[in-house]
Amino acid sequence: MLKLMIADDERVIRETISNLIDWKLLDIELSGLCSNGLEAYDMIIDESPDIVLTDIKMPGMTGLELIKNISKSHLDTQFIILSGYGEFEYAKEAMKYGVKQYILKPCNEKQITESILEVSKDCYERKRRQVAGFLHDLLQESGSDITQLNHFLSGIQDMNFLKQLSDCLLFETKLRKEELAPFELTELLMTINQGYSDSQILERLYGMIHKIVSPEKKQSGTNFTKQIFSYVEQHLSDSNITLKEIAENQLFMNVDYVSKRFLKETGRKFSDYLAEVRIRKAKQYLAEGWQIQQVAEKVGCGNNPHYFSQLFKKKTGMTPSAYISSLQRK
């Protein structure tokens, strides 16, 4: 199942689309509705949706700016553009960043559904190639860390994708002449073809891969949030920090699991925590006499000073310039 998010500053459009489409039929989870680009940016950082259906012109951060900013991150999010008449130049600019689907407003259910289906195919093909490459690398080295499988297997709920994953595994085991009993391969195929649940298929896949690789390293569950805090502090100037990047490349865990656990342990979303750290550091640097542009760069907003000013005002109630003036009056 893929996750999709809708971003449009017109409430009637957001809610109409969310109620019009049969998401279950498309095997899509509607993960959120956003009223502006800034809200959408934060939600994408938190939720890592596969698809974002966005208006091209929104207050705060336009759809085009949103696409540009997310394209600089490590997120594999695909965009579908909603655009009014006369805004095609914006859409053409967005296509430079890999956007392939463009819907002209007003639009109908058929147009939206067709665009979502096209992007969904691309998402699953990307996932299939990613999984095939990962399984190949995993089987290449007997000392691979089995916990990295969480990155690929946790949260997978689409039956067709599971079949593709199983095909990749069967192909790789055959190619590498791995020692798997014939009945095990037959059992997996029967599990897939006889309508077993997705969780049962995943269980079989885990079992087969455990037989092929030697899991020696264990991912420690201790100091979970400390690892995230430490990474953010050390890489704060990186404008591309996302929870997905930390989860996959530092913790070797599924991003949905990391997101929920972070919220449970800290009581706040990762995007809120990241924003708070950036503003806390920004206030410190401004008090030390750094220029606003320099501060924006030091806290990871150098590529978007406008976003930095908006974020600063949202968190402190005043612009960076006003904050400097308030310090000078003391």
Furnish the topology, listing elements before pairings.
Layout: E1 2-7, H1 11-20, E2 28-34, H2 37-47, E3 51-55, H3 63-71, E4 78-83, H4 88-95, E5 101-104, H5 109-140, H6 149-153, H7 159-175, H8 182-193, H9 198-212, H10 224-234, H11 243-251, H12 255-266, H13 270-287, H14 292-298, H15 305-316, H16 320-329
Parallel strand pairs: 1-2, 1-3, 3-4, 4-5
Helix pairs in contact: 2-3, 5-7, 7-8, 7-9, 8-9, 13-15
What is the helical fraction, as a range of percent? 55-70%
CATH architecture of the largest domain: 3-Layer(aba) Sandwich
Q: Uncertain regions: pLDDT < 50 for 5+ in a row?
A: 142-146, 174-186, 213-222
**Strand fraction:** 5-15%
CATH superfamily of the largest domain: Response regulator
Reading the helices and strands in chain order gives EHEHEHEHEHHHHHHHHHHHH
Report on the architecture of this protein.
With 330 residues, the chain is of the alpha/beta class. Helix content is 60%, strand content 8%. The chain has 3 domains: 2-107, Response regulator (Rossmann fold); 124-212; 224-329, Orthogonal Bundle (Arc Repressor Mutant, subunit A). The protein has a 5-stranded parallel β-sheet with strand order 2-1-3-4-5, sandwiched between helices. Helix 13 (270-287) packs across helix 15 (305-316). It comes from Candidatus Acetatifactor stercoripullorum. This is Stage 0 sporulation protein A homolog. Its main location: cytoplasm. It is found in: Cytoplasm.
